[in-house]
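Case study 2.
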Amino acid sequence: MRMVTYVISIVFLLAYADQVLARPVLVFSGGFGSCAVAGSTSEIKSSAEMDELADRLRDQSGEEPVQVRTCYALGSESTIYVTADELNIVDEPMTREEFYEVVRSTADFAGNSAPFYVWGQSHGGWTAMSLIANVGGLNYRLLTTVDPISVTECGPVVFTGGVLTGSSEGCQRAPKDLEKAYPLIAKRVAHWKNWYQMEFSLLHSSPIPHADENIERTFNASWWVPMGSHSLTERDPAMWTKTSELTVTDLMQSGRPKVGSWR
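Prediction:
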């Protein structure tokens, strides 16, 4: 049934390609445990900030942005829970490859010229980079990585071991497993902003040379804050304000391409 919906939507857009403006697409990826144990994207702590950005983009552009949201449940690094309302997908567990297909289908729905704005925090930052490295041919306008941590290098077992020993290299740097893909990611995106912190010594990212800007943040988090400053990066007001400004400005300055006009 979902495939029928995809086909009908795509045929409609192609039929009116000269008249329909491509809709902006927002892809949000939460980090490890961002949807707790229920597998619901509504549990992502920064859902309110995501909603505010979507509302601002709608108000400025006059178009409802197409959204895809993903999160990881506790103890499930290989499964992503995905919501894409426009495609009638709500909190469905998927592999990363299936998630990539959803994004491709979203591009078909919004128009292949649709501007994509991709955001990810912690494991979601890794997911966002992995998406762009694996899915080419889309109009990626802005990639925002927020204290990105590798899913493969820093899972729960590795992190727990680091807590016990005081050190876990894979949890204390930007994703090294994607390092070879950094040039490709940078080539595919118009802008790449990498936000990171190094206050929480057991879990933090680091600068990424291929990003066009690296922004280090300090929070002076209290000792009782779970995951310390790493967790505070997700709802960092400065980061969200800047991300919102960059997204709206880019959409307005880059123009509103018609469906099928970008390549």
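The longest strand covers residues 139-146.
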